[in-house]
Amino acid sequence: MTLIKSISGIRGTIGGKVGENLTPVDAVKFASAYGTFLKQNSNKTKLKVCIGRDARISGPMIHNLVVNTLVGLGIDVIDLGLSTTPTVEVAVPLEQADGGIILTASHNPKQWNALKLLNAKGEFLNGSEGAKILEIAESEAFDFSEVDFLGEVIHNDAYMDIHIDEVLNLPLVDVEAVAQKKFKVVVDGVNSSGGIIIPKLLEQMGVEVVKLYCEPNGHFPHNPEPLKEHLGDICKLVQEEKADFGIVVDPDVDRLAFISNDGEMFGEEYTLVAVADYVLSKTPGNTVSNMSSSRALRDITEKHKGSYQASAVGEVNVVELMKATNAIIGGEGNGGIIYPELHYGRDALVGVALFLTYLANQQKTVAELRASYPQYFMSKNKIELTPQIDVDAVLAKMTEQYKAEEISTIDGVKIDFASEWVHLRKSNTEPIIRIYTEASTQSAADDLAERFVGELKVIAGI
Length: 462
Prior knowledge:
This protein is an alpha/beta fold and about 450 residues long. The chain folds into three domains: about 5-155, Alpha-D-Glucose-1,6-Bisphosphate, Chain A, domain 3 (3-Layer(aba) Sandwich), CATH 3.40.120.10; about 165-370, Alpha-D-Glucose-1,6-Bisphosphate, subunit A, domain 3 (Alpha-D-Glucose-1,6-Bisphosphate, Chain A, domain 3), CATH 3.40.120.10; about 375-460, Alpha-D-phosphohexomutase, C-terminal domain (TATA-Binding Protein, 2-Layer Sandwich), CATH 3.30.310. The protein is built from 15 helices and 20 strands. The chain has helices at about 25-40, 60-70, 85-95, 125-140, 160-170, 175-180, 195-205, 230-240, 270-280, 295-305, 315-325, 350-360, 365-370, 390-400, 440-460; strands at about 5, 10-15, 50-55, 75-80, 100-105, 110-120, 155, 185-190, 210, 245-250, 255-260, 285-290, 310, 325-330, 335-340, 375-385, 405-410, 415, 420-425, 430-440. Strands 1-2-6-5-3-4-7 form a seven-stranded mixed sheet, with helices on both faces. Helix 7 (about 195-205) packs parallel to helix 12 and helix 9 crosses helix 12 (about 350-360). The longest helix has 19 residues, at about 440-460. It is globular and about 65 Å long. Belongs to the phosphohexose mutase family.
């Protein structure tokens, strides 16, 4: 059982001992710290926070604890109920709220839950803000309100529909063009809120929907991370239904993966590539992804005469660099699309609507579209180290060893070779070095990974 406290929030497994898992006591403690942080940084007499949750079994319990903790601090709550991460991000500025909390452990299995924390823009808190909340939680310097000054709860379950409307009103989303194509799409909602909102979006775009695991009961029918090894059922159903493609989202609907019409994975890395290709063709500009994402986005960006830059891993870092470079679109290679025209957050709905519009204007199947992009293959590995090993020193030696190559040390060490790259980065929570590689064939990516695993072990003396 685990409890992970980080600058991006708190997540853990349900049950067990206080301080070691995400127990009711821990949920209240960190909700109190967040509410206290907001009060310390505002001159308002009354604050307002939007709260939504995914369909996890523990969701209602954690939801009630967090809502009533904020009420106890004198903060009003806009209760969105069953929702998605991007929906809450959209709601915060529309409600002119002072922050937001999404109760979800994203792609983690059902025994996990988490508090994801937003600022008044509906964006994730930065590192210094997250560190301050951890400090407040540790000190337990909470000051709750007297009875006449408790917060109020306003229930508003309309925001999934509002979110859909905001997406459909985007200039680059063409509902009429999509409807004319009469697409048929299979949706795997992993029995969470994506099983509600994605079919609704598709139906409003005139798409025939075949639902798979779209009952929001929190009983995930497979590992909820949208990777190939977990998605055999939808790959099979896309072929059986002769569908144009399949859509897979994670429990909080900020990651998006496609299944091509032939039942093969489109590739999470290529979700952003395809959507960016469309967006850049209409609105040329710059792009950003994290440095563990595919080089294909750089290729597509340069094809459209734009500039690509890579950030450190983490959505907050991607957003920060997108703002600094006025990027038109960005995201992460795990299927996270960030389209600032709507908001600065990963949003599967935006990705679906833009992809459908692009497909409606192409004379290609989804498999043919995928084949038209630069072909890169990735390998993702890790090395477990003993706590005594100095990971920073190991990475520093690797940097020195490859100093003649193009190197970035923004986040670990990324070494760019002419036709392939390797990214080595340490875990923030355990003695592990992650090794990501990309090359023009799978065997080349695997070989590159195997080579660097061996070199790292030699340097680390294991």
